[in-house]
Amino acid sequence: MAADPAGRAAARAAELRALLQHHAHRYYVLDQPEIPDADYDRYFQELQAIEAAHPELLTADSPTQRVIGQVLDGLTPVKHALPMLSIRTETDTTAAGAEAFDARIRRELGLADDAPPVEYNAELKFDGLAINLRYEDGLLVQATTRGDGETGEDVTHNVRTIGQIPLRLLGSAPPPLIEIRGEAYMRRDDFERLNERQREKGGKTFINPRNTAAGAIRQLDSRALADKRLSFFAYGLGDVKGWAQPPTHSATLDAIAAFGVPVNADRRVVQGAAGLVAYHEAIAARRDALPFDIDGVVYKVNSVALQQRLGFVSREPRWAVAHKYPAQEQATRLNGIAIQVGRTGKLTPVAKLEPVFVGGTTVSNATLHNVFELRRKGVRVGDQVIVRRAGDVIPEIVGRIPAPRPAYVPNFRMPRECPVCGSRVLREKGGIDHRCSGGLFCAAQRKQALLHFAGRRAMDIEGLGDKLVDQLVDGGLIRTLPELYTLGLAKLAALERMADKSAANLVAALDQSKNTTLNRFIYALGIRHVGEATARDLARHFGALDRVMDASVEQLLQVPDVGPVVAQSIRSFFEQPHNREVVEQLRAAGVHWDEHAGSETANAVPLPLSGKTLVLTGTLPTLTRDEAKALVEAAGGKVAGSVSKKTFAVVAGEEAGAKLDKARELGITVLDEAGLQALLQQGG
Ligand code: IVH
Predict the structure, then answer these.
(1) CB of 598 closer than 8 Å to CB of 540
(2) Is 616 close to ligand 1, i.e. is its CB under 6 Å away?
(3) What is the pLDDT of residues 491-518, one digit of tens each?
(4) SS3 assignment, position 267
(5) Dihedrals φ, ψ of 558, to 5°?
(6) HEC string of 310-342?
(7) Is 447 known to be catalytic?
(8) What share of the chain in percent tops pLDDT 90?
(9) Cα–ligand 1 centroid distance for 23 (angstroms)
(10) CA dihedral of residues 611, 617, 619, 623 (deg, nearest 10)
C-alpha cells in the first residue's frame, strides 16, 4: 500500500499513463474512442501536474513526453528546422481566463499598473492538424506534420491535394526560404457531406472533422483524400531566410495572406485584457455559426520584439495562450430511443438523453440517423454515450462508452407501422432508410411538409411555426399545401390561443409570401434530394417552372451538380399528377414569381468565376480539357489560350510547359486540378 503522499502520486501517475496509453490507441489507431476528448485532456493535465510536482516520477515513455501522433511506418520522418511549439492552454472558459493571461504578460514584462495596455492579436483556435509548409523560392517543396514537435512526418503528397494551399506563392519576389505554419482542417459542411455519403453507402461514418482531417493527412496513399475535402488556415512562421519578418504578428499574417496562403479573417488586434475578453465573448456568440470547429481562441502578444523578450518555457512560448470554450463532446446516459417521422416519411431514431451541457447548450435529444448506424455503434438504452454538438448541426451520438450492462437490454428495432399514422413502414431494397408509406395522409409528413414550405429559406411565412402547424393539421383545417392560402381571418382567429392580431399578421404574411422567386418555390415544394443549392441551379438552368416540370432525366442531368439520383427524384415528383395539381393550385391561389429571372436577385450568389479568365495547360489527373473548360464556363469564367497579366489563374497539369513558365514569370496564381475544384466550390 502506498500510504505516503509520494507513493500515492507515483501510483496515480502510473495509472494515468496506462489509461492515457489505452485511450490514445483507441482514438488514433483504432478510430474508436471510448471517452470524450475533454476527459482525455483532463487525465493528461492531471498527469502533467503530478510530473511537474514530482520530477523524479517523469519517465521517458510518459505520454506527456510524446505528443501523440507517432511516426507511422511508411511516412518519412523529417526533423523540423525549427521546433514546432505548442501553446499553453487556459481551461477557465470564463473571462477570468483572458484576464489571467494579460496579468501574467504584464508581470513578466515588468509593466507598472498605470502603463498602457499591451497590444495582442486575437485569433481562432482551429481544431485540426498542425502542418508546416516549406516554400523555397516560392515553391512548395515539403509539408510536414508536427509529430513530437522536433520530428514530424513528410505528408507533402497529401498536402498537395489540398486545393487551398498554393503550390507556388503569389508575388514576384518570394523569399528564398519561408516556412508557413497552420492548421489543416475539415469544414463542417464537408464533413457532413462525407458522412451523408457514407450513410447512403451503408459505410462507416467518421467521428468528427478533426479526426477525419488528421487521419486523411497521415495516409500513405493520397487517393484516400479524394473524397475528403480539406481546408487550411495559416497562423505563423517557422524557419525563414532572406525575408524580413514584419514587426508585428498581425502584419506577418497579412504578409502570409498576400502570398496567397489562406489566413482566417476573424482575427483582431486588440488592446489589453478588456480587448481579449470582448473578443472571447464575440467569438463565443458566433461559434455555432462558423463553418468549421474551433475549440477556443488564441491570444498572442502582437509585437515581435516583445515576443522575443518574453521567450519560451520548455516547448511553449510565454507570449501566447489558448483560451478554451466548452467542449463539443460530452458523455451522458441514453434514457430511451424515440422515432421521428420526417417530411419525406423517413423514420429517424432519436436518442432521448439525460440532459447534458455540450458545445455551450443543454442537449436532451440527439439523432441516431438510422437503424444500421445505431447497430454499428452498438448503443442500447441505459448506455453511457458520447454526444457531439457542433454548430447548427443536429446533435448526434458518436458512440458508446463500453461498460458492462446491468441486465439484458433488447436490441432496438424499427417499428413495422408508422407510430404517427399507422401506415406500413417500408424499406427500399438495399436502402438503409425506413419510410412511412402514408404520404400526405400521415399527419407527421404533412406537418413537416408545411413547416418546410413555410420556412425562412422557402416561402418565408412568418408566424407559421410548429405549434400552429400542429393545430392546423390536428384540427383537420389543412390537408394540402395550397389549402394554406384558403385560411381566412375567421378560421384562424377561431383557433385556440390565437389572438386577432396574430391571425391578422399571419394572413398578411401568407399574402406576402405569394410574391416569391422561382428557386424558393422549387425548394419549398420539398422534392427529395432538392436542397437550396439544387433549387437555385434548376431555376438558373431552366428559367421557367414548366421547363423544370417537363424536363427529362437527360435534360436534368445537364444541370451542374445534378446526378442520376437527384434527376430521377425530380422527374418522379413531377410525374405524379397529384404534385402537378399542387403546383397548379398554388399558382391559382396567387403564388407567383418572375419567370426567366433565374435565381433570385436579392440574395444572388455571384458565380465564383464571373469576369475571370483562366488558362488551362498540361494534362489534368481526372478532367479532360473540354470538361475543365465547361466547368470554368459554368462558373461564369472564360478560358483563354494564352497567359497575360489579365489572367486570373493558370490551371496546370502534368507536362505543362511554356504557359506555366509565363505564369510564374508574371506571378500569376497556379492551381492544380484540386485547386480548380476548390475555386469552383466557392460561393456555390
Ligand atoms: S500558434 C508558437 N495559433 O493549437 C505557437 N496554434 O498547441 C504555435 N492551433 O497544435 C501555435 N489554431 O496546431 C496557434 N491560431 C492558432 C492556432 C493554433 C490552432 C493549434 C496548433 C497546435 C495547437 C497549439
Answers:
(1) yes
(2) no
(3) 888 888 888 888 999 999 999 999 999 9
(4) coil
(5) -75, -20
(6) HCEECCEECCEEEEECCCCEEEEEEEEEEEEEC
(7) no
(8) 54
(9) 23
(10) 10
Spatial distance between the Cα atoms of 424 and 386, rounded to a whole number of angstroms: 33
DSSP 64-110: GGS-S-PPPTTSPEEE-SS-----EEE---SHHHHHHHHHHHHHHTT
Q: Is 670 exposed, middle or buried (0-12, 13-18, 19+ CB in 10 A)?
A: buried
Summarize pLDDT for 445-471 with one digit per residue, the tens.
999 999 999 999 999 999 999 999 999
The ligand 1 atom nearest the CA atom of 129: 13
Please tell me the total number of residues recorded for the chain in this structure.
Answer: 684
Q: What is the pLDDT of residue 684?
A: 38
Decide if 232 contacts 184 (C-beta within 8 A): yes
Q: Count CB neighbours of 50 within 10 A.
A: 19
Give the whole-angstrom CA distance, residue 13 versus residue 58: 9
Using most ligand atoms within 8 A of CB, pick from 179, 235, 264 the residue to mutate for ligand 1.
Answer: 235
Q: What is the pLDDT of residues 99-138, one digit of tens each?
A: 999 999 999 999 999 999 999 999 999 999 999 999 999 9
The DSSP bridge pattern shows strands 638-640 and 613-617 to be parallel
Q: Choose from 241-245, 503-507, 556-560 the range with maximum mean pLDDT.
A: 241-245
What confidence tens digit (pLDDT) does each residue in 49-84 have? 898 888 888 876 677 765 433 444 588 999 999 999
How far apart CA 613 and CA 635 sit, in angstroms, is 11
- Residue 146 CA: which ligand 1 atom is closest? 10
pLDDT score at 483:
94
**Nearest by Cα to 327 from 389, 400, 266:** 389
Average pLDDT of 153-166?
88
646's grid cell: 489579365
Nearest atom in ligand 1 to the alpha carbon of residue 264 is 15
Pairing between β-strand 88-90 and β-strand 320-324 as defined by DSSP bridges: parallel
**What is the structure's pLDDT at 173?**
87
Task: Say yes or no: CB of residue 127 within 6 Å of ligand 1.
Answer: no
Active-site annotation holder among 125, 228, 300, 447: 125
Query: What one-letter code names the amino acid at 656?
Result: A
Mean pLDDT of 140-144: 95
Residue 28: is its pLDDT beyond 60?
no
- Give 111 Cα–ligand 1 centroid separation in angstroms: 27
Cα 271 from Cα 277, distance rounded (Å): 10
Where is pLDDT greater, at 383 or 411? 383
Which residue from 73, 70, 53 is spatially nearest to 61, judged by alpha carbons? 70
Please indicate whether residue 130, judged by its CB atom, sits closer than 6 Å to ligand 1.
yes
Contact at 8 Å (CB) between 577 and 604? no
Q: Whose C-alpha lies nearest to ligand 1, atom 14?
A: 235
Query: Nearest 5 degrees, angle CA 393-CA 397-CA 398?
Result: 100
Here the contacts of 248-255 (C-beta below 8 Å, separation 24 or greater) are 248/119, 248/121, 248/302, 248/303, 248/304, 249/121, 249/300, 249/301, 249/302, 249/303, 249/304, 249/307, 250/121, 250/302, 252/304, 253/121, 253/123
The mean predicted confidence, pLDDT, of the chain is 88
Q: Which of 244, 262, 251, 83 is nearest to 164 (CA)?
A: 262
Q: Which SS3 state, helix, strand or coil, does residue 671 take? A: strand
Which pLDDT band, with edges at 50, 70 and 90, does 20 fall under? confident
Q: By CB neighbour count within 10 A (0-12 exposed, 13-18 middle, 19+ buried), where does 10 fall? A: middle
Instruction: Give the C-alpha separation, 258 to 251, whole Å.
Output: 10
Q: Which of 410, 365, 414 is nearest to 387 (CA)?
A: 365
Q: Kindly report, residue by residue over 366-386, the tens digit of the pLDDT.
A: 999 999 888 888 899 999 999
> Is pLDDT at 393 greater than 80 in this prediction?
no
How high is the pLDDT of residue 72?
45
Answer whether 673's CB lies under 8 Å from 653's CB: yes
